[in-house]
Amino acid sequence: MTDTQAAPTAQRPNRPLSPHLQVYRLPLPAIASITHRITGAGLTAGTLLFAWWLVAAATGAEAFDTVQGVLGSPIGLLILFGFTWATWYHTLNGIRHLVWDAGGALELGAVYRGGFLVWGGSVGLTIVTFIAAFALK
């Protein structure tokens, strides 16, 4: 082997393979898709929580008071807030997918605008839902 040839054991630059999460930023449509899947899974857990509430309501006052106590606690309210946001996000993003299935809003700019609308709309509707819920108390 000559001096100009590199030995097979020569060190190579230590760099990540591309695309790598440290150098590659996920686009908004990818983040929206991942979030849609996560909220779908979260809605399953939230539906079990809702079923627990319904069973407790049918069982009697003592069971219902227990569930209300859990859901009325700060952690319970945080879980309900997350469940409400997941519901709104999943609903709005589902409508966005229906528009896409019909052939609309498929241009890149419209896809990004739709993503921002879904994120903003879900946060706004969650806040409105909680304001309305506490106003009715």
From TrEMBL:
* Residues binding heme, per UniProt: H90
Q: How does it sit in the membrane?
A: Multi-pass membrane protein
Keywords in alphabetical order: Heme, Iron, Membrane, Metal-binding, Transmembrane, Transmembrane helix
Record text on cofactor binding? The heme is bound between the two transmembrane subunits.
Q: Which InterPro entries match?
A: SQR/QFR_C/D (IPR034804), Succ_DH_cyt_bsu_CS (IPR018495), Succ_DH_cytb556 (IPR014314), SuccDH_FuR_B_TM-su (IPR000701)
Q: Which cofactor does it need?
A: heme
* Source organism superkingdom: Bacteria
Any GO CC annotation of this UniProt entry: membrane
> Where are the bilayer-spanning segments?
34-55, 67-88, 116-136
Is Transmembrane helix there in the keyword field? yes
Pfam families attached to this UniProt entry? Sdh_cyt (PF01127)
MF terms from GO for this chain are: electron transfer activity; metal ion binding
Q: Does the keyword Disulfide bond apply?
A: no
**What is one process in the GO biological process aspect for this record?**
tricarboxylic acid cycle
- What does the UniProt entry say about where the protein is found? Membrane
Q: Which family does it belong to?
A: Belongs to the cytochrome b560 family.
Q: What does this protein do?
A: Membrane-anchoring subunit of succinate dehydrogenase (SDH).
Query: What NCBIfam families is this protein classified in?
Result: succ_dehyd_cytB
Q: How does it assemble?
A: Part of an enzyme complex containing four subunits: a flavoprotein, an iron-sulfur protein, plus two membrane-anchoring proteins, SdhC and SdhD. The complex can form homotrimers.
Under what name is this protein listed?
Answer: Succinate dehydrogenase cytochrome b556 subunit
Q: In which organism is this protein found?
A: Aerophototrophica crusticola
